[in-house]
Amino acid sequence: MDKLVINGPNRLMGEVVISGAKNAAVAIIPAAIMADDVCKIENLPNIEDVKSLFTTINKIGAKCQFLDKHTLKIDSRGVDNICATFEEVKKMRASYYLLGALLGRYKKAEVAMPGGCDFGTRPVDLHLKGFKAMGAEVAIERDVIRVWAKELKGAAIYMDTVSVGATINIMLAATLATGTTTIENAAKEPHVVDVANFLNIMGAKIKGAGTDVIRIVGVEKLHGAEYTIIPDQIEAGTYMIAAAISGGDVTVRNLIPKHMDSLSAKLVEMGVDVEEFDDYIRINATERRLNAVSVKTMAYPGFPTDLQPQMAALLAVAEGTSKITENVWEKRYQYTDELKRLGAQINVEGRVAIITGVNQLTGAKVDATDLRAGAAMVIAALNANGETIIGDVKYIDRGYEEIEDKLNQMGADIKRISM
Ligand code: EPZ
Q: Which atom of ligand 1 is least distant from the CA of 117?
C-alpha cells in the first residue's frame, strides 16, 4: 500500500492544470454503452475509478481501448451481458449508473450493490423509485440489485431529496424509454449537465439539465459520438484551497470559473485574492493570514460537500473560529480525528464542526479515510511543520490524477513510497 511523505511547510507558486471531471466520467462511460455503436471520450481523468469502470464495461462485453492516457474508445456493439456483479463493481459507488444504462438499453440489469467511500448511509432508494415510476420491477437479493421492465415508460418523477446519482440514473433510463419523463427537484451539478450533453450528442432529447426540472423525451436508439469531458470542479477547488493554505500564488488552469463561485466567494471572504479569467483562476494568498468563516454544504450551486474536508483543513489555520455545517452526508467528519493529529482544533457535534484556528499545523502520521478526506490531509500537510506521512493513499488515487506531481511542480515536497 502506497504512502505519501510530505515535508512541510511549502509555499505553492506557479500553475496547475485541472483534469477531466471524475464524477462526469464515471457516468459518461456507462452512458456510452447505451449506443450499439462506437464512442470516443476525451479528457478523461487518469484515475483508479476510471480504470475500474474500464475493466467493468470490458467484462460486460464492450471493447474498450485507451487511445492515450486520457482518451477512451468504447465499442458497445458487443455488449451482451446485463449482469455486473463482479469485484470491480462492488468497489465503486458509481457502478449504480450501469443500472440506468442497461435498463435503458436492454430493459433489464443486474448490478452489485455499490460500494465507494464510506461516510454514512448511502441509499439508492430514489434511483429505484424512479425506475419503478417508469414501470420497472425491482428486486434486491443479497448484495445484488435486479431491475427489469416489459416496457419502460416515461413518467413524472419528483425527487424527495436532491440527488446527483438518482438524477443521472433516471436520465439514462428515460433516454431510451417510450414517452416523456420529467424529473422535478433534479440535481443541477455541472456533471449532470455534462452527462445530458453527451446523451444529446448521441441522439437523446434532454432539456433543462442544470435547472430544477429536466425533461426527457425517449428515443428509440442512440448512436456513437465523440465527447470531451468538462474540467473537474472538485479537483480545481482542491488546488485553490491548497494554494490558499500554503500562502501561495497559483494559477489554476483549465477550469470553468462559474463552477467555482461558491468556493471563490468563501476564499475572498477569508482574505484571499481571487482573480477570474476565461478558463483559469489566480489564487494569491501571499499577503496576509486568512480569517475564519462559516460554510454550509449544499447541492450545486451551493458549497460542495466534496470540498468540505479540504476547506476544514484551511479553516484549521485561519484566524478565529469557523463553523462548518454539513447538509449532504450525515457522517462526513471521520477525517477530523486525523486532522487533529496534525494539531487542528475541531469539535464535531452532529452535522456541525466548530474549528478554532491555530497558527500552524505539525507533521504527523495520518490516514486518508476517504477520497476527499485524503485530499484534506495533503492540503494540511502543506502547512504543517515537519514530516507528514499519509497512509491509505489508494483513496486519493481513486479521484486525483498525479496529485503529488502536480503539487511538486509548484514547490511541494511530496514523495510516494510503495510498500
Ligand atoms: C455524488 O454521489 C458524488 N459521487 C459524490 O462525490 C458527492 O458527494 C455527491 O454526489 C453529492 O454531491 C459521484 O458522482 C460518483 P447523492 P451520490 O445521491 O450521487 C441522499 C466524491 O468524493 N440520497 O447526490 O451518491 C444521500 O443520502 C463523491 O467525489 C437518498 O436519500 O450522492 C445524500 O444525503 C463522494 N436516496 C444526498 O441524497 C438516494 O437514493 C445526496 O446524495 C440517493 C441519495
A: 35
